[in-house]
């Protein structure tokens, strides 16, 4: 219970993104399970793997929060994610499209 209250009392950028994506993703996975066609299981598997990676980032985030101030950690996370998005944009023909 302390871990959940800690997420609410001391949020960081990654914890907010994690809560948002899990809140949107769980109903999507449940919907896909009820309307499963033969090729839909790969999509659910990819989503679950994505959630596991996000959970790993959340664990690392909570560990870093013990050692670093939460405002400083949020700024560091925001800079790292913005830097990655800028790098991705310029190395992929100035586009965020996947295809």
From TrEMBL:
Keyword Transmembrane annotated: yes
Keywords tagged on the record: Membrane, Transmembrane, Transmembrane helix
Top-rank lineage group of the source organism: Bacteria
TM spans (from-to): 12-34, 40-60, 72-90
Name the record gives this protein: Uncharacterized protein
Organism in which the protein naturally occurs: Chryseobacterium candidae
Source organism phylogeny: Bacteria, Pseudomonadati, Bacteroidota, Flavobacteriia, Flavobacteriales
